[in-house]
Amino acid sequence: MPRKAAPPLEADLLQGTLDLLILQTLVMGAAHGHTIAHAIERRSDEVLQVEHGSLYPALHRLEDRGWIASFWGTSENNRKARYYRLTQAGKKQLTHQTSRWEQLVRAVNRVLGPATD
Amino acid sequence: MSWRKYFRRDGRDAELAAEMESHLAHEVDEFVARGMTREEAQHAAHRKLGSVRRVREDVYEMNSLGFIETLWQDVRYAVRMLRKSPGYAAVAIFTLALGIGANTAVFSVINTVLLRTSPVRDPANLFLVSWEANKAPDMEWQSSYGDCAGGRSSPNPSDCTFPRGTYEGLRDDSKVFSSVAAFAGPSELQMSGNGAASVVRAITVSGEYFATLGVNPVIGRTLTREDDRPDPSNVVLSYAFWQSNFGGDPGVLGRTIALNGAAFRIVGVAEQKFTNLSPGKTQDLWLTIAASKTMGIKWAKRSDGISNWWLVIVARLAPGVTRAQAESEASVIFGNQLLHGEKPLAKAEDNARIVLTPVQSGLTGRRRMYSTRLYVLMCAVGLILLIACANVAGLLLARSAARRKEIALRLALGARRTRIVRQLLTESLLLSFIGGVVGIAFAFWGVKTITALLGGGSAEDFAFAVTPDWRVLVFTLGASTLTGIFFGLAPALRTTRLDLTSSLKENAPVNAISGEGAWWQRLQTGNVLVVAQVALCVVVMIGAGLLVRTVNNLRRIDPGFDTKNVLLFDVDPTRTGMKDEQAASLYNHLREKLAALPGVASATYSSGELMSGGQWREAVRAEGSASEKAENVDVLSIGPDFLHAARIPLLAGREFTSEDFERASTKYNEQLKLAQEMDSGKTVDENAQLTIVPVLVNRAFAAKYLAGKEPIGRALTRGGYSGATNGRNNEPPSREYEIVGVVADTKYGTLRDAIAPLLIVPNVTGGVEFQLRTASDPEALVPVVREVVKKADAELPVTAVRTLTQQIDHLMEAELFLARLVSIAAGLALLLSCVGLYGLLSYEVARRTREIGVRMALGAKRGDVMRMVLGHGVRLALIGVASGAAVAASVTRFLQSFLYELKANDPVTFAAIGLLILCVSVAASYVPTRRATRVDPMVALRYE
């Protein structure tokens, strides 16, 4: 496990990004809350620490908007768990939000980057 | 998804709980896999997730219409909390009810008197026509019934009465108005043909009046333009008059009544809501301008002339016409009449012009009379509400000390501060709303008191029906809400800013021992609240003090004649056409009969009577006087024996003899004859010498015009009418009067008037006011007096029966009203502030019991403890009194117009009130202080 390059950021520091991360995580298939949290942490090299307290309200919010759907299933540990999967509307939303995010990142980078002219 | 989520929240919450459970289980599995024991893993998992309950609440709230949901929850909780401490709740609700109730009551009256819209169709589009000029037009007769604010005096004279010609010009020659109506009055007429003769009040209106206003009849019809002719004369009754004098009988239609002896047919009754056009003025019936000429009303004969200004005009704009267009066209018509009439009344440079104002603001009626004092009262009760707020805030603060643990616990369990503040605010709002509801009950009583006092004791004078409407409702609701937030916010913020650990500890140390700063900080709010209450109380009390002293000053004024035990009543037999000679003998007959009654010391009569608030002035000049021009002096017209009955001393010369009355009568007839000849077109010598009438003058007259000269036997010349704008001062003076005696000075119109020159003439014409001096309570004689008058003339109505004391009280009605009501307000303010101070100190002592015990155990004397508690109270009171006096010094000047012989910053009043409040504060501090000195150190140390 690599050493942390930077202190972990709390995912909800950037408002709205948690939603995007959840949606992205679910592209690879249905998952339950615990998996989603850990997947985000692992994939960000532990830089993004999902505060579990805000994960569940976010999941419920996304479900209310119809971007993800939920069902009860059995987990890899053989425990009862609530699984979430991406809906059609959710996929569209993911594409949309990802491009918005990239725009944002490019814009911020341009500002931060060395002046070209 | 949508709204359905709001209804299956509990199911979803259970699911979420299961989901979190599963999350924890997975987390534990993971930690165990990493080598922790199961117990360690469980702890770690919980730590990592944080409060499960908090997450559940977040989601639960997400699925709720949060506001309503928590509101309902909070209200239920608040009700439970209040029921747990009924004593506290009762005190708070009562205090708030007083504050809100007093404000609601005063606002109800203000709403009715000053804000209510005119009871006509589309009042916003009905305009009052008035004139403005650089110099008042040269009118000869001008009458005004107080419909609008206006005056002929320069600079910028303006008024809303017009000659009949202007009304007809605007009605017939202009296209800018869709309809124009005129009215004047009310005038008092004698009505017979419906039971005993009585006096009724009639408004004279043009035929278009009802159509222009959009007033409908309840039965029959209203007056139309066809009615505006002398024969037959029709009248419309007001709803109230129809109910009270005709029992609401629909059979009145077509009935004939006699008004001042002329026959009138009742054609209809106006709708109930149309009580009046000018606020606060009342009338019993309406008759037409044409009809008014047949009734022997003196002014009516001249009512057509361009120099008689007496009609108030209202108009509606034609569609598409702006107010400015209408004003300029009307001004042209009006200007032409003034400049190019038979007799020019103004010059072009006077720039006489027409101004249109919506009737709502233009027709002020009796509104003006009441507005200032109502606003003063509103300020006083506003302060009461502030005091009540501060008081309840103090209570809440003291109580919040008892709830510190509860709130600390809730904060520790994860409640957010905003949530708790909101809940505390809900509690205070609940209190203020209950206070508001109870306050409405107080308000009903308050409105009764206010309207009774506004009428100066007699309800007829205050002709506004005060009823609650939506504005009052909104006001009370608004006042309650603001009050709730106002008194609730500070304690709520205060309470939730806690040091959690120390509050939660079972045996919290009393902070005061560990350091002054801590308790001082916490108490700051409480101290400030008490200081504010005392200060506000000082302001109200000083206001009340000034007003009460004014009333005392007024009451101490010696009007120059004996005002005790005098019964007054009015009669006017000339209304129904009785000749003046007959009237005079009727008066003398009545005088003898009344004087002979047991319990009556003397009986006399006068006209232009003293202390009536009215004024009758004439321009005269004493021959040999230093002043060249005739000057206006007050005139009093008296019957035989008046001086003796009124106890006005005769200083020189003689009183009137019966011969004097005969001479006055002769002159009056000579004048009448002249006027008739002039009316019939004969050429007459206007300067013919008429009979000279003997008169009396007062000492001030002699001193001002005849200083150092012998007044007796001196002739007075007359020059023009009061106003004297028509140049009559230039006519050669004619000898009118001869002074036969000098009397002592008396006040004339009102108590506040300075002593002024007075001319006393023998009364020979018109109605009079009888004055009976009685041995005991004058009011007991009223039935006997009515009987005597009825025997002398069965058709003669006796009106305006009152005592002289009542009449004088009526003159200082505004001062009495304010003095009484502001005193009540001041009493409330004092009571509330005392409760506030007492409450704070009691709370202090209770809270510091242990500290006091320690101090006493360490050797503090009772005296020290007493100084500590009492000193605290007195310190607060002193700061309050000082700041209150400073505020009062800057605001009492708004009362100046009500005060008499008193400066608004009268030091005696300020000092007395300050001292009084200090004394009361000491008294209020006494009980808590005594409780503190009785603290038993042993008990106190075991306390808590």
- The proportion of residues forming helix of chain A, as a percent range, comes to 40-55%
Shape label of chain B: elongated
Q: Provide a count of the helices of chain A.
A: 4
Count of discrete structural domains of chain B: 5
CATH superfamily of chain A: Winged helix-like DNA-binding domain superfamily/Winged helix DNA-binding domain
In this structure, how is the largest beta sheet of chain A organized? 3 strands, antiparallel
Would you give an account of this structure?
- The complex is a heterodimer of chains A (117) and B (944).
- Chain A is an alpha+beta fold and 117 residues long.
- Helices cover 51% and strands 17% of the residues of chain A.
- Chain A has helices at residues 17-27, 33-43, 52-64, 88-112; strands at residues 9-10, 31-32, 48-49, 68-74, 80-86.
- Chain A has a three-stranded antiparallel beta sheet.
- In chain A, helix 1 (17-27) packs across helix 2 (33-43) and helix 1 crosses helix 4.
- Chain A starts with 8 loop residues before the first strand and ends in a 5-residue tail after the last helix.
- Chain B folds into five domains: 2-64; 67-118 and 370-508, no CATH class; 123-362, no CATH class; 520-562 and 809-944, no CATH class; 566-775, no CATH class.
- Helix content of chain B is 51%, strand content 15%.
- Chain B has 29 helices and 24 strands.
- Mean pLDDT of chain B is 84; it is low at 506-520 and 720-730.
- Chains A and B meet through helix 2, helix 3 and strand 5 of A and helix 1 and helix 3 of B.
